[in-house]
Amino acid sequence: MSDLSFEKIENIKAEQWSFLKRQIEYISKNSPFYKKLFKENSIDPQGFQTFEDLHNLPITTKEDLQKKNSEFIAVPEADIIDYVTTSGTLGSPVNFALNNADLDRLAENEFRSFEQVGIKKEDKVQITTTLDRRFMAGLAYFLGLRKLGAGIIRTGSGLPLLQWESIEKFKPDYLVAVPSFLVKMIQFAEENNIDYRNSSVKAAICIGEPLRDQEFQLNALGKKITDLWNIELFSTYASTEMSTAFTECPAHTGNHVASDLIYTEILDENGQQVRPGEIGELVVTPLGTQTMPLLRFATGDMLTYWDDACSCGRNSIRLGPVLGRKQQKIKFKGTSLYPQHIIEVLNAYGKIENFLIEAYLDDLNNDKLVIIVPDSFMEFEELKDYFRSQLNVAPEIKVSPLVELNKMKFPRTSRKPQIFRDFR
């Protein structure tokens, strides 16, 4: 694979179409889901000649991936090496799988991302995200850094004391972290007299939460971090289904798209491509994936894009930060959730009959999730641990008298119980 980003735009488009055509041909021969889709919609995959022809293909949704998960497998089961899990729109986890070629592709994507940021072989990088629990991103970071040859410090998520001990011991140049966790690390350092401002860390590659606004300026969260800790912050945006990450360069003017690894569309409500700077839903076709290839997969994320040349010299398009979610989507601590996810966890937990789910924006403009339970319930930490085991994150738990809880749950103006209340 070779990065097309520095080529002329016409060369980028020509090469990307070649990759896209090849991917469609592969999928038409190997994916049970798309074979059936082509047949039901009388689509001849050999007939695709331009990017516009791709619009004849129906959008693939998260519901499709959840309900017909096994039909997306396009390789023999014996070829699958790694299994990961994400959350589906309807609540049950969505399984995802990768073969050797997919893992190589994942490594290539992150290798380029880290090079783009400026990381070199002689640098050391501390990964503060989990590499276990069927989480793709942590593995991707490890594979990319291994390909780059950089030093890797795998501390995993949480545990601020371990993070600072590792920084002191191994002197990493970069961190990979969720931005809000950087805030916790700073707070811990200040409470324990750690001289974090003079640490070895010079930059952080950030996952899970936006750092910038549409004008490329740091948002409240980004400013809070950099006001306290003079390190450079790089945004990266990805999802398991995309099998691809979009990362900033040092110009910090959007997340670059690797044109030979993924084809992106940003569509309006009518399924038409929006203009640069306009908001639309990101729809992706990962290129070169083999195990669970997707065509025109709707991410549900609303964002903008730019197609002018970047000052770094790259000519491929750049994506802006995620501005909002479709319907009731919640982006909580880097995990995409819907109310049904929480409902299913609470129902499976089995010890709470009445509950209410609420979504807010916190002081840093990130989604905040609160579960209200009867005041007779006391096992808060047990419930949070159960949430972590199911969704990898734990919401805030609040209590209310059962009478008040039922009043909120059954408002007079509604004929149905209101289990989810969105105050964002």
Number of helices, counting only DSSP H or I runs of 4 residues or more: 11
CA gyration radius, whole angstroms? 22 Å
**Major β-sheet strand ordering:** 4-3-5-6-7-8-9-14-13
- Computed structural class: alpha/beta
Main sheet specs: 9 strands, mixed
Mean pLDDT: 91
How far is the N terminus from the C terminus? 42 Å
Structure overview:
The chain has 424 residues and is an alpha/beta fold. Helices cover 31% and strands 24% of the residues. It has eleven helices and 21 strands. It has helices spanning 9-30, 32-40, 62-67, 100-117, 136-148, 160-170, 179-191, 220-228, 339-349, 380-391, 402-409; strands at residues 80-87, 93-99, 124-127, 151-154, 174-177, 203-206, 232-239, 244-248, 255-256, 262-267, 280-286, 297-303, 305-306, 318-319, 324-325, 330-332, 335-337, 356-361, 367-374, 396-400, 420-422. The strands form five sheets. The protein has a nine-stranded mixed sheet, sandwiched between helices. A four-stranded antiparallel sheet has the order 10-11-12-15, with no helix packed on it. A four-stranded mixed sheet has the order 20-19-18-21. Strand 19 (367-374), helix 10 (380-391) and strand 20 (396-400) form a beta-alpha-beta unit. Helix 1 crosses helix 2, helix 6 packs across helix 7 and helix 7 runs parallel beside helix 8. The chain is globular. The two termini are 42 Å apart.
Quick overview:
The protein has 424 residues and is an alpha/beta fold.
Protein topology:
Layout: H1 9-30, H2 32-40, H3 62-67, E1 80-87, E2 93-99, H4 100-117, E3 124-127, H5 136-148, E4 151-154, H6 160-170, E5 174-177, H7 179-191, E6 203-206, H8 220-228, E7 232-239, E8 244-248, E9 255-256, E10 262-267, E11 280-286, E12 297-303, E13 305-306, E14 318-319, E15 324-325, E16 330-332, E17 335-337, H9 339-349, E18 356-361, E19 367-374, H10 380-391, E20 396-400, H11 402-409, E21 420-422
Parallel strand pairs: 3-4, 3-5, 5-6, 6-7, 18-21, 19-20
Antiparallel strand pairs: 1-2, 7-8, 8-9, 9-14, 10-11, 11-12, 12-15, 13-14, 16-17, 18-19
Helix pairs in contact: 1-2, 4-5, 6-7, 7-8, 9-10
